[in-house]
Structures are given as C-alpha cells and as structure tokens.
Design goal:
Elements (H helix, E strand, L loop, with lengths): L1 E5 L6 E6 L8 E4 L1 H58 L15 E6 L14 E7 L2 H16 L5 E9 L6 E8 L3 E5 L6 H12 L5 E4 L3 H11 L6 E3 H11 L9 H9 L6 H10 L11 H12 L1 H21 L40 H13 L1 H4 L19 E9 L3 E5 L5 E5 L11 E9 L4 E6 L14
Parallel strand pairs: 5-8, 6-9, 9-10, 13-15
Antiparallel strand pairs: 1-2, 2-3, 4-5, 6-7, 7-8, 11-12, 11-14, 12-13, 14-15
Organism: Plasmodium vivax
GO molecular function, one term: nucleic acid binding
Protein name: 3'-5' exonuclease, putative
Length: 473
C-alpha cells in the first residue's frame, strides 16, 4: 500500500510502503527518486507482459489459420469426390447433373467366404440397388418377374427393416435379394400406393419362394398395414427346428447370426455395433439419408438367406439318409460332423434356382424338392401369426379375463412364453414343458399385467384350448 502526505513545511513529499504483516509493522520510507524508479520498473514489466501476450495471440492466430486452411482443403477434396460420384450417375447436356430425390442409387458388394461354402454362394460380387420412386420400383419388379417367367429366379431372400416391426410398426425399407440386392424405400417413396402395388405383385407371386428368418412380425406388418399376404415362405428358423425335431433335440428359437455360424461358418459379430446403434435410437431407420452402416446391416440380413436354405436342405437330407441307415447324424454336442455338407457333393445344388419350376427338376433331387415343400408348409404357421388377436383394436382396452391367442416361442420347466401379435408378449406360468412346442397356438386368458411389457396369462380349459400343430408329414 502507498501512503502520501505533506510535511509541516509543505515542501517535501514522502511515500510510505507497507510491507505487510510479515514485516512486523516495519515501514520503509521512499523519496521522489525512489517513486520514479518504481514507476519505471512497473512500466517495463507491463511492456514485457504486453509483448508476451501479443506473441501468444499471434501463435494462436497462426494455429487457427493453419487449422482453417486444413479444413478448407478437406472440404474441397470432399466436394471433388462428391462431384465425381454425381458425374458417374450421368450429366445433362448443359453440364448439370440430372439427379432428383427419387433417383436410383447403385453400389457393389464383394463377398468373402470360405471355400467350403462357396458352392452355396451365387457369385461373390453383388449389385446393390437402392430404389425410392414408384416408376423405378415398377421397372425392377418387372425385371425380377421376367426372370421368374424365364425360370432363372425361383427363390428370393426377403427381410424388412423399420421401427418396431410388427402389427403397429413402421416399415422403412424392404430388402429383396436375387442375383442382385434391391433396397425398396417404402418410407420415403414418391407414391406409396403405386410402390406397394408393385411389391404386392412380387411378394404374393406363388411361383417364387420367399426365404426369410422368423418372418412372423414381417408378415404381420405387411398384412395389417399394406394388405400384402406372403405365401410360399421358406423360413430358416422353421427349417432348423425341423432339423432339431428329426434328431430328437430340444427345440429353441435360434437367431439369424447363430444359424449362419452353425451352417455356413459365417461370423457376424460385427453386427453388434449395428444392434447398439438401433437400441440407442429405435427410429434410426426412419432418418434420411440412411446411414451407410445401416444399409450394410440391411444387406447382410438377406444376402446369405439363399445359401442358408440350401445348407439346411442338405442337412435335412443327410438326416433322412442317416436315419434310414440307423446312424446318428449329430454328435453329443449337437454339432454336425466334420464334413458340414454331408455325404453328397454340395455342387449338385449350384443350379438350385430350378427347384420349384414346373417339370424341371433335373438340377435337384426329388428328395430336396420334398424337403423344401415340407418346410414351406410348416412355415405357414408363421404366416398365420398375422391373424392373431386382430379383434384387439386398441391395446389400452385389454382387461383381466379377456381371452387371447398366443403363439409359443419358448418354453422351460416353469414358464411358457408366447407372442400375441401385439406390442406386448405373454407369459404363462406353471405350464408343463412337454405339452406344447414352438409354433403352437394356444388360447389363454389375461390374469394381470407386468411392468416389463409382459402380460400374465393362464391357459384356458383344455377343452377350449385351440392347439394348431402340423406334423408336416
């Protein structure tokens, strides 16, 4: 602190600088010359601080300028890449790119598979076609139908992606896999009526086998919202349960990824990342443009359905042969033998597209045809799931004592879990495991409601219980 005062004579000015409590009250008196020295030191110190501040700001500005320059270069490179991609789609006579919101996008997918499953795969390079206009949809559906008429296409892989796929959900895209992969954008198409009309002709064509995996919710949303009734469906989950039943194993609902690994030795663990994305944002498939990762996820769900069907058919055929010879086709661990393709050469099914063509079974044995027909007939139970509980228009009106139909999806020693074609599932407690199997439809009554989106159910009187079971003989 500085203290100024004037002496009694009024001539001398002194300055007292307090050194604070550490000086024990001691003071030092400085004259005018000392004050001038203090000011000079203060001025020089401030000048040094200003120089340092100026140099620091200059360094910050230089870094900012270099960073902005780098960003500008990256943006310029990105725009050049985008321009090249747009030019590939075609340019008009005036040099402008002819592209609209309903244009078709193309791409290619290169598959990498092992030599053991190569006979099941039709080419390693597939063309991916993204369609969002009714005009293009009609053209590509007609192209597929021409292949059907010519006998080149008899099987297609089918899957649906969207928000809460089921009776009251929203369809985003429908994936169809032939020799190429088609992604039909039903959510953002220019004319949904014409779009659905074209797809309906293809999906209801009885000449075409639709290969799916657990098609119950897909069938429900297509039927209840778009009046599309699937038929002639080969469900790979149904085929696997038939394989378990023939080998006297416990039935369970296997996931698509696990089935791919069992039959085709394909590891789809990278899809965990996509499952995480969808779990964080369930409406992510309704956003446009669709993320590249989600398109890849959608493609992965259909490109292996046809090879998976042929692998399951071969396994079922081998089980039939081994059963006739009195041999056990599976080991103690439930896995197939070391030869995953059985005794016959899988190359015999390379031209399996002719499996269901009229009078043209030269490329496939009659036994395989019968197996496919049997699985197709058993898969009708999954299709009929779309009719369950259609009398329930508003789920808020559900009350205790109401009767519902449920399709068995899992059973253990204590509980029986059923799908109701509603947003909630049902659980029946204290139910004997051997009474029912997966795919049966049981009549039950509402006993209460759980906090985890399950409905507590009880079986109706056995005389009123409608169990629809098809032996598939």
């Amino acid at each position: 602190m500085f203290f100024f005062w004037r002496t009694l004579k009024g001539s001398d000015v002194c300055c007292v600088i307090s050194l604070g409590p550490l000086a024990h009250g001691w003071q030092h008196v400085v004259g005018p010359s000392g004050m001038q020295a203090v000011c000079k030191r203060y001025a020089s110190g401030m000048q040094a601080v200003c120089k340092r501040y100026a140099s620091g700001m200059q360094a910050v500005c230089n870094r900012y300028a270099s960073g902005m320059q780098s960003l500008c270069k990256r943006y310029e490179n990105a725009m050049r890449t985008r321009g090249r991609m747009l030019r590939r789609l075609g340019a008009g006579t005036n040099g402008q790119v002819r592209r609209s919101a309903s244009s078709v996008s193309y791409g290619y997918l290169n598959l990498t598979v092992s030599d053991k499953i190569m006979p099941y795969v039709e080419g390693l390079k597939k063309k991916v076609i993204y369609v969002s206009s009714s005009k293009d949809c009609k053209a590509y559906v007609q192209e597929i139908q021409k292949g059907v008429q010519a006998g080149k296409i008899n099987c297609i892989g089918l899957d649906v992606e969207g928000y809460k796929i089921g009776r009251n959900g929203t369809v985003s895209i429908i994936q169809v896999c032939t020799q190429d992969v088609y992604l039909f954008d039903l959510y953002k198409c220019d004319n949904s009526y014409l779009f659905v009309k074209c797809l309906k002709e293809l999906l209801e064509d009885r000449r075409v086998i639709k290969i799916t995996h657990d098609c119950r919710e897909d069938c429900s949303i297509l039927f209840n919202q778009y009046s599309i009734c699937l038929n002639k469906t080969f469900d790979t989950q149904v085929a696997f349960n038939l394989l378990l039943k023939e080998t006297k194993k416990d039935l369970y609902q296997i996931s698509y990824d696990d089935l791919l690994y069992k039959c085709l030795l394909l590891n789809n663990k990278h899809k965990i990342y996509f499952h995480k994305m969808i779990s964080l944002d369930q409406k992510i498939y309704l956003k446009r443009p669709i993320a590249k990762e989600l398109i890849q996820y959608a493609i992965q769900d259909v490109i292996y359905l046809k090879p998976l069907m042929w692998s399951l058919v071969d396994r079922l055929l081998r089980v039939c042969k081994d059963g006739e010879a009195g041999r056990e086709p599976f080991g103690e661990d439930g896995e197939a033998r070391s030869n995953p393709f059985g005794e016959e050469n899988p190359r015999s099914i390379k031209n399996g597209d002719d499996v269901m063509s009229e009078g043209a079974h030269s490329n496939i044995s009659e036994h395989k045809t019968n197996i496919i027909k049997r699985v197709t007939r058993l898969s009708e139970r999954y299709i009929n799931y779309q009719f369950l509980n259609t009398h329930v228009k508003n789920e808020k009106e559900l009350q205790k004592g109401m009767t519902l139909d449920g399709m068995v999806v899992s059973c253990n020693n204590l509980n029986l879990y059923v799908k109701l074609n509603l947003s909630r599932r049902g659980v029946i407690t204290n139910c004997m495991r051997n009474d029912f199997e997966i795919g049966d439809v049981v009549k039950c009554v509402i006993l209460g409601f759980c906090n985890n989106d399950y409905i507590k159910l009880g079986l109706c009187d056995p005389s009123l219980c409608a169990v629809k079971r098809e032996e598939g003989r």
